[in-house]
Amino acid sequence: MELRELPAGSPARSRHSRSALIFLISAIAAALVSMPLLRAVGMVLWPVFVIAWLINLGAAWHLAQWARQQGRSAWGFGLPAAFGTVASIVVYVLLALLGPKAAVH
């Protein structure tokens, strides 16, 4: 499979970064909303972290695709992002700061 270079501002390139950000915000919001609800009804709190982590897996997948589009290792950025929301935020910032990898001629 040939990896074609997409323009920097193309919709396909920005879609994965935007989707990853949406998943990250959703994971944080789900944790913030569900923790007081579970505490109010007297339930254990571990489902909060499981729900946030499952939502975070979507962010990790989009971060891996974004890294691949930049010419970087999808596993190298996607796998650490799968460990949790904080790791995903770090990977998101790294990818945003690094930008597309320069083509080797």
UniProtKB/TrEMBL annotation:
<feature type="transmembrane region" description="Helical">
    <location>
        <begin position="20"/>
        <end position="38"/>
    </location>
</feature>
<protein>
    <recommendedName>
        <fullName>Transmembrane protein</fullName>
    </recommendedName>
</protein>
<keyword id="KW-1133">Transmembrane helix</keyword>
<feature type="transmembrane region" description="Helical">
    <location>
        <begin position="76"/>
        <end position="98"/>
    </location>
</feature>
<feature type="transmembrane region" description="Helical">
    <location>
        <begin position="44"/>
        <end position="64"/>
    </location>
</feature>
<keyword id="KW-0472">Membrane</keyword>
<keyword id="KW-0812">Transmembrane</keyword>
